[in-house]
Amino acid sequence: MKIKFVWVGKTRDERVRLLEADYLQRVGHYHRCEVAVARAAHDGSDGRRLEDEGREIASKVARGSYTIALHQSGAEMDSIEFARVLGMLEGGSRKEIVFIIGGHLGIDRRVLDKADRRLSLSRMTFPHELCRVLLLEQVYRACSIQSGTPYHK
Predict the structure, then answer these.
(1) Angle at 105 between CA 101 and CA 107, to 5 degrees
(2) Which residues form the domain of 23?
(3) How many domains does the chain have?
(4) Residue 70: which of 138, 152, 23 has the closest Cα?
(5) Which residue stretches of the chain are H helix?
(6) pLDDT tens, position by position, 92-111
(7) Which portions of the chain are predicted below pLDDT 50?
(8) Mind listing the pLDDT tens digit for each residue in 131-149?
(9) Distance (Å, rounded) from C-alpha 140 to C-alpha 10?
(10) Does residue 101 contact residue 150 with C-beta atoms inside 8 Å?
């Protein structure tokens, strides 16, 4: 199974980039994984920029992928539940899981409506760059739970 992470804009903070690289490498021991960076829109109104970013995100998602959009309206779950969900998806017919993280404007409604699932990391608000690391860590934790390694303890 391949896991793809699509997010808007490059990670600017070097410390966050190092954490991203670390967790991507860890997840890579369990699954093929890839990051696709959607270009951040800078021109026009917020609504127009959100639409442009939405089209850019959509262009990074292969047809037939199982998409999970991170959004405040998404389901909250603990790490064990999340590991179960990923485990069920691994056993399914889809070859790729795509996690989508929007930029500071969020995610275009059309992308949200097409997503197979919405996931919330917390009811709290976090910087979108930090959400990337939180998601990567939780995916790694889910992999370790499924494989029975001691990381989750």
Answers:
(1) 45
(2) 2-152
(3) 1
(4) 138
(5) 14-27, 46-59, 79-90, 109-114, 128-147
(6) 889 999 999 999 999 999 99
(7) none
(8) 999 999 999 999 999 999 9
(9) 21
(10) no
